[in-house]
Every structure is written in structure tokens, then in C-alpha cells.
Amino acid sequence: MSYCGTFITAEELHDKYGGVTMVVDTLEELMPAAMDKARELCRRGPLVLRYLKACMNEQEDFQIHRKDELEVTYTRYMARHADFKEGVSAFLEKREPQYTGQ
């Protein structure tokens, strides 16, 4: 997805890649589905869930911090090139970009 600049739907993320556990069709289905998932989690061991959540939150914070730094670094690098400006212009003008490798 990153290399091609393609977008992916929640359904594709769920069906093909397992990146989400559930997709609901309407906003009205969201809260009941969330409550069902919460009840399922409540049947698990509370200490395990507490420490798993803490572990995941700490990893996420670290990854987000590192990810943000890398994105800023590479965005600054890319923004200096004509191809970056062409890509942004083409996107805004809704046309195919004409890259030159510069």
C-alpha cells in the first residue's frame, strides 16, 4: 500500500489481512458490536488483560514516536525534489503525475 499509494477499505483489511477484528455496516451497529466485544473481553482474566493493555500501549507510544520522527525526516527530504511537488500538484489537480526522477 505504501509503495503504490493505494487505499484499502476496512473490509479488505479485515478479510485479506486480519488487521481489524470486525467491520459493521452502519453506525447504528457500532455500539452493540463494541459492547459485544467488551463483554467477550470481560470473560478473560483481568490481570492478564491489564498487563497486556499496558504492554501494548507502551509499544504503541514508542512506535508512534519513532514513526513520526521518520515520517518528518523523509517528508523533508522528499519535499526538496521536483517529483514530490509534481505528485502533490497532480493529486490536487486530479491527474496522473509525470515523474522525472528529480
TrEMBL record:
- Reading the lineage from the top rank, the first entry is Bacteria
Which Pfam families does this chain map to?
A: ECH_1
Q: Which InterPro entries match?
A: ClpP/crotonase-like_dom_sf, Enoyl-CoA_hydra/iso
Single GO term (MF): catalytic activity
> Any idea what this protein is called?
Enoyl-CoA hydratase/isomerase family protein
Q: Please name the source species.
A: Dysosmobacter welbionis
